[in-house]
Design goal:
mainly alpha, 18 helices, globular
């Protein structure tokens, strides 16, 4: 019995892993963000030097902590850790969407994987992992408030902007009987995260402008709203990709009272996108709770005709491959905007050649 149970859970996990690896490495293609070398130098010097300019991304401490814990002093080692951390998070995401059963691979045909693949070195992959885990606990009606609080603490500490807007999305998507627990656990987690974040910022002598302060710089709000209105169709596609057809199915076949939670949570993601002026990164990450919930609903959906489900899944996959990414970063892009540095693939080849130079003939 145990062997059969392991096989039953292992096969969906393996399919999730194969799908995510193919899409991220071969179809979307990985790239380090263009500022990753500068970021590493800042992380090296920040404890001993007062900077003239403090980039706002220093508010998110993930890779500073990784560098600190592992005492990384070489940029190649740092890049390798960034790449391995991405794959480790993908591995954990594959495990945590196992509850979706055979529908799990559909999750990777959405925009968050494009974002995380194109911006290696950003904290988006950890936000994606935490949002997946929280979504799972909420959908499976887990009642352990300590786990909820801890997960929200990590999410807020990693990226407070995503934390704020994802809480609103979760409130729309969750059952009424869990809303009080959701509000309480997110408030406590966010409060503790704020204390830890302030301690961290004081530790690195941060004196720059945070994400919310930058939002109120001259022309930022004007540009943000203009960016959304100018590129709305591409922005929506960049977040959902083929999974947009699940939303369309639910809207067309379910009562508005039921489908409105998915519509409103999508609007929340659009609102949160206003934090970033020229990128659909935030939108694709904030859509994760909505997409996980949509796929969970699809797994329970009662199709009148059996072939209808197959047509929908084919449509999700084929449309993603045919239309491809429509990522908005200044303008609509089909390839990564981060192409100035050495490619991930050349980097890995160089590392392997360096390690194996005395072994290979």
């Amino acid at each position: 019995m145990k062997i059969n149970k392991i096989k039953k859970s292992f096969l969906p996990f393996l399919l999730n892993l194969i799908t995510s690896t193919f899409l991220s490495h071969a179809f979307f293609k990985l790239s380090f963000n263009d500022w990753i070398y500068d970021e590493f130098q800042i992380y090296k010097n920040i404890e001993n030097t007062t900077l003239d300019n403090y980039p706002f991304y220093l508010e998110s401490p993930l890779f500073f902590i990784i560098k600190k814990i592992f005492s990384i002093e070489n940029v190649d080692v740092y890049l390798l850790f960034v790449y391995l951390f991405f794959n480790f998070c993908i591995f954990l995401i594959c495990l945590n969407i196992n509850f979706l059963g055979p529908y799990g691979p559909i999750f990777f045909f959405s925009g968050w994987l494009v974002t995380c693949s194109w911006f290696l070195g950003y904290v988006d992959i950890l936000s994606a992992l935490l949002l997946v885990i929280i979504s799972k606990w909420i959908l499976l009606n887990d009642k352990n408030i300590f786990i909820w609080t801890f997960l929200f603490l990590l999410l807020a500490f990693n990226h407070f902007g995503i934390f704020i807007f994802s809480i609103i999305s979760f409130l729309f998507l969750s059952d009424n009987k869990y809303k009080k627990k959701l509000i309480y656990s997110s408030f406590v987690g966010g409060f503790v995260a704020s204390i830890l974040k302030n301690w961290y910022l004081n530790y690195i002598n941060f004196s720059g402008r945070g994400r919310f302060r930058i939002l109120f710089n001259q022309n930022i709000l004007d540009d943000a709203t203009g960016f959304i209105s100018d590129y709305l169709p591409s922005l929506i596609w960049s977040g959902f990709l083929g999974c947009i057809f699940i939303l369309i199915l639910i809207i067309l076949t379910k009562e508005y009272k039921f489908s409105q939670k998915y519509i409103f949570s999508s609007f929340v993601a659009l609102l949160g996108t206003g934090i970033v002026v020229d990128s659909s990164r935030i939108f694709s990450i904030l859509l994760i709770p909505t997409i996980v919930s949509l796929i969970y609903e699809l797994s329970k959906y009662n199709f009148v005709k059996p072939y209808s489900e197959k047509i929908l899944i084919i449509l999700i996959i084929v449309s993603t491959f045919v239309v491809q990414e429509r990522h908005v970063f200044g303008y609509v892009r089909n390839i990564s905007p981060n192409l100035e540095n050495e490619s991930v693939y050349n980097f890995l080849a160089r590392i392997v050649n360096s390690v194996m130079k005395n072994i290979w003939v």
